[in-house]
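Lab notes, practical 5.
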Amino acid sequence: YLKGLAKAKNWNEDTIEFVVNQHYSVIQQWLSKASMGIHTMWNEHFGIGIVEMMAAGLIVMAHNSGGPQTDIVTTFTASRSGFLASTAQEYAACMHEILEGLNPKEIERIRERARSSALRFSDEVFDRKMKQVFNTHLP
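Output from the prediction step:
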């Protein structure tokens, strides 16, 4: 769909590159070059892609539903780790705030909170918490 839309809009192929079904190392390379990440899936159960963007230090805009809303992206000013939106207008407003409304220090604080927040979902934390559950409930 997006390739067809880009063609229909006559968007320059030099400025848009579709990268699909790549190895994780390629995804990591792209994440290291990006500054923002957009995730639009409605009612995503969890959102590992969002966590990966946050771990890479991207400013994340995710759909205001499901796991991103309840478990991943915090939007309170004092602890904001990203942005939530539901409509195209809300996503545009988030982008505008990120690009025009935040100063570099605020952006860096959001990036750091996102990186720290993503650590909650690391393999090490998962292992530690699973061992706690097993030690508590199994003889």
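Observations recorded by the TA: The chain has a mean pLDDT of 92. The helical segments are 2-8, 24-33, 48-55, 66-72, 88-101, 104-118, 123-137.
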